[in-house]
Amino acid sequence: MAPLAIFADCVLTPLEAIPDGVVLVDGSQVAAVGTRKEVQIPRTATRLEAQGKTLVPGFVDIHVHGAGGSDVMDAGPETLQTVASTLARFGTTSFVPTTVTASLDATVAAILRIAAFTRAGRVQHPADVTAESLGIHLEGPFISKARRGVHPEEWIVAPSPILFERLIASAMGEVRILTLAPELPGALELIVAARKQEAVVSMGHTDATYDQATAAIRHGATHAAHMFNAMRPFSHRETGVIGAVMTSPDVTAELIADGVHVDAAAMRMLLAAKGVERMILVSDGTSATGMPDGRYRLGPFEVTVSEGVCRNSEGRLAGSTLTLDRAVRTIVGLGVPLRDAVQMATLNPARRVGVEGRKGVIRPGADADLLLLDENLSVSGVMTRGVGFAA
User: Could you confirm whether 284 is annotated as catalytic?
Assistant: First the structure.
């Protein structure tokens, strides 16, 4: 395959903005990036002039439950591929499939499927434009019943080293994130055990006080799931986990920027507290992502989508239909520079799960996961590991 030279009005790496930039793709990787004057284009290269477009890395979603009518807990053989293909349509080129609290048998079965899918995708060159699975995000079952959101109460359990070891063994080394409630008895010990397995420990679905959350951070928790949602509310006398995350410089914070889960003022407050480097945009997407309003599955229960908003039978928010392209547009709409918004959806999540050398960045040697954004910041072209890019 001949190299491909992509010329764009601007290239966001995202740490650098390169006006009148060019990216040279050779096979599945980026070979060079720079200005037209800096990059030497081989005579054999195909040239693509993307006038009026901005070239950015593919989005990395580290909290997603499904898409395209398929849920990552489903047993169907094509489920994960459907999720991966649907996400890619909206610019997400890498993702971390996220479980929801369910029975032990259902959870183990889902973990086995995701682990196998992840390993296969790592070695197989994609034939079509499709997102790559980076591993597994375990959301539950070690969460607070008081802040469970829509997670089924009957399957929530106390932190258990024995159960965690079974889940880890099923995952064959592919667990990237464990979300738990740090205030539960045994949670601090489980945080230490998870860190020994090189899993990122995320605080979420938690009623933790400030002191309990800071104790978790001292033990190795470095991340917070969907900030403000399914957490003890912030108070000026007891700031809870929200206060701990906002004042801990080493903790990254997820944000569902769909305009439904978090108010604009709260988003601005979080952005001001954490800064660009520690913010991560996530979708918390469900099987309804990319689909019309209707009824869908989220793990073991049904959700109803009306006007694009997912709720369970009790009327509680149940994940979202958000995609990261829309999340980026929301953040830019708050006055955040595009380069910073892109970093929150690319490099920052890739760095959080330890793949920043090949994902979430445009640099020589990185995977050729690339997007073209038009003047409205809509995705007009997608490339995954060198495949695709029909603008």
Answer: yes
